């Protein structure tokens, strides 16, 4: 059995935002595998499917990004999974928009959802598939950028990337991580730490911050957001 986890923030407010590419890709996996209707379980949305005879569970935590680990840990404990049977899909600021990067393990690299999963699982030894969203334009904060919706000139790239991410995840189930890495990883000439700054999203800078929803309680309170 395999567990594929898409990271993001729940609710219509966050639909089609950069931070939710994991949710978008998992929805495409569900469609490709004709998954069962989703249900609420493990503090998230869970669907079941099969790929080449292997049971696949698709989980989108509804705990908000910064608390993703508590949902993942509940699923891992329930199914008694090894960590290499988990694949986490998430956004990555340090990859150019549309680039994919699959790794068998590693640090969070500044991604707060991954950071919380590492904290709850106790180590970094689980596969992850990062989907590049690029760096914020000048004048934007990281929080405003990742919680912002895609600009018109980004949509085609991200649609293609999340579709490829869905196929990459299925390849991971069917063929193993080595084959998936060889087929879907970004080309070697793109350094994760040196994102091409051309073709930045063209969009207005967001207005002043609104009351945040606390990542652990789900309640609104004033001050900076905690969904990043």
Automatic annotation (TrEMBL):
Subcellular location: Cytoplasm
An annotated Gene Ontology molecular function: peptidyl-tRNA hydrolase activity
Keyword Cell membrane: no
Gene Ontology annotations of biological process type: protein quality control for misfolded or incompletely synthesized proteins; rescue of stalled ribosome
Active site per the UniProt annotation: 19 (proton acceptor)
Pfam families noted in UniProt: Pept_tRNA_hydro
Record bears the keyword ATP-binding: no
Major location (coarse): cytoplasm
CDD domains given in the database record: PTH (cd00462)
Keywords per UniProt: Cytoplasm, Hydrolase, RNA-binding, tRNA-binding
InterPro entries cross-referenced by the UniProt entry: Pept_tRNA_hydro (IPR001328), Pept_tRNA_hydro_sf (IPR036416)
Protein EC: 3.1.1.29
Function, as annotated: Hydrolyzes ribosome-free peptidyl-tRNAs (with 1 or more amino acids incorporated), which drop off the ribosome during protein synthesis, or as a result of ribosome stalling. Catalyzes the release of premature peptidyl moieties from peptidyl-tRNA molecules trapped in stalled 50S ribosomal subunits, and thus maintains levels of free tRNAs and 50S ribosomes.
Family named by the database record: Belongs to the PTH family.
Assembly mode: Monomer.
The name this protein goes by in its record: Peptidyl-tRNA hydrolase
Organism in which the protein naturally occurs: Stieleria varia
Gene name tied to this protein: pth
